[in-house]
Amino acid sequence: MWYDKILFLFKSKDLRKKFLIVIFLFVVFRIAANIPIPGIGLENLRKFFAENQVFGLLNIFSGGALSNFSIVLLALGPYITATIILQLLTMIFPALERIYKEEGEAGRQKFNQYSRLLTIPLAVFEGYGMITLFQRQGIISSLPISVLISSILTITAGAMFMMWIGEIITEQGMGNGISLLIFAGIVATLPINIFQTFVAWDPSKIPSYFLFFVLSLVIIAGVVLITEARRNIPVSYAKRVRGNKMYGGVSTYLPLNVNPAGVIPIIFALSILLFPGMIASFLGGTPGFVGTVATAAGAFFNNIWVHGILYFLLVILFTYFYTAVTFDPKTIAENLQKMGGFIPGVRPGNSTAVFLKHILNRVLFTGAIFLGLIAVLPSIIAGATGVTGFTFLIGGTSLLIVVSVVLDTMRQINAQLQMREYDTF
Question: Residue 201: helix, strand or coil by DSSP?
Fold first, then answer.
């Protein structure tokens, strides 16, 4: 039973230590998210985030750190952006692709080190951009050069600190650190959102609230279905005689996830989707032609239907892209051939790689379309019902990430339990 697993989680000294470390790091993140940078007025800033949908969404994923203008206001944004940039570059530069795919664990560590180094200039640039943007919007007053430099350094240090926390959480084997921190940021704002919903209760919107509740249940069920769904490909192993023993001669299967990228396409799509709105807001106060174009572009990208269509397409694009980067049918086919495995009716080697790629593309199409639909359904319903409340608009995205992260974390914790007490499961 599930409660037996929870009891064993706390009985095992090693697992209990890992779990407590993760909880402690969550607490550190929440404390840091509420420590404001000195010299910054917060009242106008919080009002701005309450009224701006694009930055309000960004604030949700930072756990309120952005509206508090805290020392970790950028959260994991620069690190995620650096990772996206480098993974895109693997498709342009063969040397970088070779490091990421062919050099094994050492190559992955080198690639991660490049991501960390790229995070620093991105954090400096984004920190300066945020301060300049808020100054142009009249939210914060002009800062002396010494305060500006210290604020940028603090913001950069906070971004690197968050990156370090994320990697420490990943090392504990309880889930992906980046996803868990985003999950913690969303869950941290949930009580406030629920409270605000009841404070601003409007009986005329009861049908819309009911639709949102039903939609939430559909999204949860859909995410569980698409995350757990797999296409099993039968694999057989030839019999081999070594000494006096015979090996192989068994049949098993190779599981292909319908959505092997998990929640990563959602995070990537949101990161990219925020840029046009941020740039438009940044240039909106500029006089002349540039300011006019920026204002028009901001209105275009903030349109709920434009936002939904772009969001849908980006989720599909990043699902295919991330899968192409992390799953190589050629490598799988070579490993099967080395171990004496083959797919019945398919020749080993290149034919197996082509077959796997064909199956993956067909399965991935279903997963990507379904994932994109789940992501944009709340926005579609919001446009149809006229409910434009911020909580309503981001509900689907938040649920999507929360449910996916919970499933992935449960799977990794279960693997840790099975590794230590295999006979009891």
Answer: coil
Domain boundary among 199, 219, 254: 199
Give the pLDDT of residue 172: 84
Cα 349 off chain centre by = 34
pLDDT tens readout for residues 179-188 = 888 888 888 7
How much is the pTM?
A: 0.74
**CATH number of the domain to which 74 belongs:** 1.10.3370.10
Whether residues 141 and 241 fall in one domain: no
Sign of the dihedral through C-alpha 302, 305, 310, 312: positive
Q: Which of 188, 198, 163 is nearest to 68 (CA)?
A: 188
d(CA 167, CA 349): 36
d(CA 76, CA 82): 10
Same domain, 37 and 184: yes
* Phi then psi dihedrals of residue 422, to 5 deg: -65, -35
- Which pLDDT tens digit goes with each residue over 266-285? 777 877 777 776 676 666 66
**Considering the chain, what percentage of its residues have pLDDT values greater than 90?**
5
Pairing state between β 251-257 and 245-247: unpaired
Q: Rounded to the nearest 10 degrees, what angle do helices 53-61 and 264-283 cross at?
A: 140
Element (H or E) spanning 149, and its range? helix 145-171
Length of the chain (residues): 425
Task: Give the range of the structural domain holding residue 5, as residue numbers without chain letter.
Answer: 1-199
Q: State the total domains in the chain.
A: 2
